[in-house]
Amino acid sequence: MKALTYHGPGRRTWGEVPDPAVRDPEDAVVRVDAVTICGTDLHILKGDVPDVAEGRVLGHEAVGTVVRTGPGVRTVRPGDRVLVSCISACGRCPSCREAAYGQCTGGGGWILGHLVDGTQAEYVRTPFADNSLHRLPPEVSDEAALMLADILPTAYEVGVRNGRVEPGDAVAVVGAGPIGLAAVITARLYSPGRIVVVDPDEGRLDAAKRLGADEVLTLQQATDEAVRALGRDDRGVDTAIEAVGVPESFELCTRVVRPRGRVANVGVHGRAATLHLEDLWIKDVTITTGLVDTSSTPRLLAMLAAGRLEAAGLVTHRFGLDEMPEAYDVFGAAADHGALKVALFRT
């Protein structure tokens, strides 16, 4: 089969690799019908994730059809249309028993496209299929379901839920890429008083407005004073969600949050950020980090099927699966192409 493989910083190949097979009783092999590219894949290609071995098939988000299962799989069978979650869960370890699947110690967690071969291929082996695949209802399209593989649960769990967004709150989302836009969508579920989005790209700010942001600011406009003034009593925002993964965006979040506010870091950081405790210690600020657990995926899927969750508008570019190199070029230069999420489909 063909797959996108990593060969060290800055080097990737779309070419032939061996077909995956069932190795463990709880495995399933899934035919990939739709797949996308994540910002984390770009971090891997930049060398920010040193655990990724050369030759690894990248990708951790897909929708597909089950073609084979191991003897221990009980909840899916060949022919089922499924969402492949970015997180694999053994279901038995202490972390999984607390629904902290991202921290699975039984061989799961974020392994697809990281520690085992991933989804940017014609077929993918999915460990712990019972806990890591979600059967899809017919009313949910492949494209919409793709948004539930990673960005919507990540933005919801690590950004909105960790940031404890509540009705009437002022929320700042720094970064209007796919994760930041997903944070806007899922923050709206809690009826905040105002959502402010900061990004240097005018096209992404337009998308943020379309998806529900109340105020949008360019980097030049987003002075500390200007963002704080959009919070309650001009004291800062209740929750600041970092959705970029660079020191400047994290440090901006810590400066614009009000006393007793929350900073929820979602971005994947490849460089050190300065934590200004000399300013923060007296403000009672809570800072959270996190890897998505995907414990919310069934709930979000039910909302999507019921028409209560917005997923349209996040995909801007579509390709055939064999156009993977072109899709990476577009996504890697997103600002030049006005790209948000790209989606690739089996033809």
Explain what this protein looks like in three dimensions.
It is a single chain. With 347 residues, the chain is an alpha/beta fold. Helices cover 27% and strands 23% of the residues. It contains 13 helices and 15 strands. It has helices at 39-45, 94-97, 129-132, 142-146, 151-161, 178-187, 202-211, 224-228, 247-256, 277-280, 297-305, 324-332, 334-337; strands at residues 2-6, 12-16, 28-36, 62-69, 81-84, 123-126, 133-135, 170-174, 194-198, 215-217, 237-242, 257-265, 286-288, 315-320, 341-345. The strands form three sheets. Strands 3, 4, 5, 6, 7, 14 and 15 form a seven-stranded mixed beta sheet that branches. Strand 11, helix 9 and strand 12 (257-265) form a beta-alpha-beta unit. Helix 5 (151-161) crosses helix 6 (178-187).
